[in-house]
User: Fold these one by one.
Assistant:
Number 1:
Amino acid sequence: MWTHILGFTALPHVGGIVGSLYTRTEVSTWYKTLKKPAWWPPNRVFLIAWTTLYTGMGYGSYLIWKEVGGFTSTASVPLGLYGAQLALNWAWTPIFFGAHNLKLALVEIVILSGTVAATMVSWYPINKTATLLMVPYLMWLTLASSLSYCIWRDNPDKEE
């Protein structure tokens, strides 16, 4: 049981670790040159937020997996949506920090937010706790979408 809990909980962090390869050099160079709104959170908040959010969503996915009896046909929609949103989540960092494509990053995060909402809707009848674990994530994505919009709006010449 513990191996499943740890595996599901650790999985979202894999994308965060890979994403850090894109952000590591860009934060002190390209990202630093971007015009950001006055209400932009300090950089350290992002690490704390994503660590917490990845852990919560990962554990939530474990609860769903356990509740539906593993990778069964019943799991295809709730875990399929979860996998889709996780892939979209992981894709945002290379789009924004790697490609410097501010417009595509904005479009991508809006689609990501919708996929997270759909995941939550599919999870709700299965396990309410798992669904509640996704609420802070959707709230953070709302903030992140607003930040992405401001970055795109205020840095038109920064798109490459």
Number 2:
Amino acid sequence: MLCGKSASEAGHSMSVRRSRGRATVTHAVIVIFLEFFAWGLLTTPMLTVLNETFLQHTFLMNGLIQGVKGFLSFLSAPLIGALSDIWGRKSFLLMTVFFTCAPIPFLRINPWWYFALISVSGIFSVTFSVIFAYVADITEEHERSTAYGLVSATFAASLVTSPAIGAFLSQRFDDSVVVLVATVISVLDIAFVFFLVPESLPDKIRATEFSWQQADPFNSLRRVGQDPTVLLICVTVFLSYLPEAGQYSSFFLYLKQVIHFTPAAIAAFIAMVGILSIIAQTVLLSVLMRTIGNKRTVLLGLMFQIVQLVWYGLGSQPWMMWAAGTIAALSSITFPAVSALVSHCASAEQQGVVQGMITGIRGLCNGLGPALYGFIFFLFNVELSDIEKPEQTPPAETPLVPGPPFLIGSCAVLVAVFVAFFIPENHKLSDASKPGAAAHAQNGSTLAPPLSDPEDIEPLLQDTVM
């Protein structure tokens, strides 16, 4: 907790929390679960429609679609954050859930419209960011990291079972039934937000002014070089998250079309990695941070990521993907550990601005990573086999490097390890990195929650569904 808080400030804080007592973390958890459960159901139908729509250069087109979506999210997140500080969270939560789920029924109505809507929906695909701000509004500082962890675990849990259920429904009935179920769940999510989710931000503490500087997505990135430690952390995040973002956008397609996973195997793979990731981000992360510290935990997570990417890139057999998936779950500790490291390096009033820099870097990677992976697949002429012949025998000649983007990504993470090695673990950031930090944190210019306690940890997640 911050020291020196006056009695009047404490009384105001207590009165504010009483006024927003109806809003709970449970509301946030339900919204996240329903949204990503609906998208998880579409894993199998989406892969089929993607290949049928783009017969040539499927990886390239998938990367471009997801890249446009990610880059639009990066551009729009600060604006939505600044406006939600003025007009409240609920209206923007309703907007983000609606536009994120809007493309779902078009998967069967018109695939071209579906992929077009997927791209432009990036303008509003920032549900996680609004949810984090919602949670920050209704929790005490010492409760916030636990609440964020619950939201993160819910996201993972929603993807543990939904792909398997979607694959079963697709096999038992057809893809139209899966799309219908996902649409119904999306409508339920929208109705839940509209009718049952209360506003978390009382009128008395809302921002009263808006400036375009708050809505500038590059605002936080301009401060990156003003402190050497911030620069090292941001370079580490960029080099490690760029291949991660690309992997998220194409990996299930890669498993199905290059490694010849069946839809059931893909669903089981997602469930395994999801369960192991939950364990890694709770039990393992806690143990490591207590025993070896934040910086060494970051380095260990990056080493796991290198092994995972190399294994994905060189592996040509299904068992290799399963083994690499286990390592991928272990590597999921990296970004929570980075966020914790930042929290300990930054002073209380610097939390918002420095976490905002990391959020901005990640948002930029969400746009660049998928496009980069798609281009590398295209450059190395990694094309897809005929999806209409799932039982066909894989080609006799397996390329030496089945997944070039993963191997190239591992090289980027190797450089990230070298950079992270020079991050001073106990260094306090200089004032040069925080001009206007307090205003930045309060106005949420990158939709980073208004953190004020060095022990607060913002989970580093992304609004990516495929």
Number 3:
Amino acid sequence: MKTVFVTVGTTCFDDLITAMTSIEVVKALVDRGYTDVVLQVGRGSFVPDTQSCPGLRLEAFRFKESIAENIQQADLVISHAGAGSCLEALGAGKPLLVVVNDKLMDNHQLELAQQLQADSHLLYCTCSTLPQTLIDMDLSALLPLLPGQPQKFASFMDKAVGLV
């Protein structure tokens, strides 16, 4: 069993959930050997049914007390670019693919994703480039974000969002 966990945090990011159930994304995941997809859909209006991803077992939920167990059980985490979600997945040592919501104005999430990709901690894409990113990604090239350096991460965040 090979699991993908997708999280949108507390946001509404229907475009990501819709993309995850597209024929192209489902095929890319199946071709990479994934068998299960768990979707945390947040406040979105689209909650796919269990038959939405032919060839994959699908579970979807809005919220739960903690997604730490879902992250721990995942072989790949796909997330929106929220700092909390990124930090939680990277802190768990999981390969992370961040999907940036390019419809957001003044998108600081893009800056965060770009910097973390430049440092080889994650890969990022948009909903429109997700299928090709899944096909091309090399998760073995990713480097862990070392734990126990909250000040370094805080400084990084300040720089990424333009506070310094």
Number 4:
Amino acid sequence: MGSSEKRSKDVVMSDIPTFSAENLQKNLKVIQNCRTFLSIIAGVLAGIIGFTGLTGFVFYFVVMLITSVGLMAKAGFSADVYFDSWNRVLFDGFLGGLMSFVLFWTFAYDLVHIF
């Protein structure tokens, strides 16, 4: 009876996910850097193409959707191995990237279409 209890405790303990805090922070930093970089590139592209108003924001959301899918593909569509939740991959750094996008969008638009 003692060995069966030990086996059941081992099975229960193996079901609990464990994360390394350092690895989790590194993975989140990679996501943040990726979103920031792609926000800057998307802002420059939106400015060069000449998007204005709502069209530019729709472009940003499409780029971030593609980025999220790309990050999930890079993680092998198993985010629970590398992150504590799916929301971290899908939405982390979303609004911070929006600020960078708007900054470079207006800058590139002014350089190309106004000057």
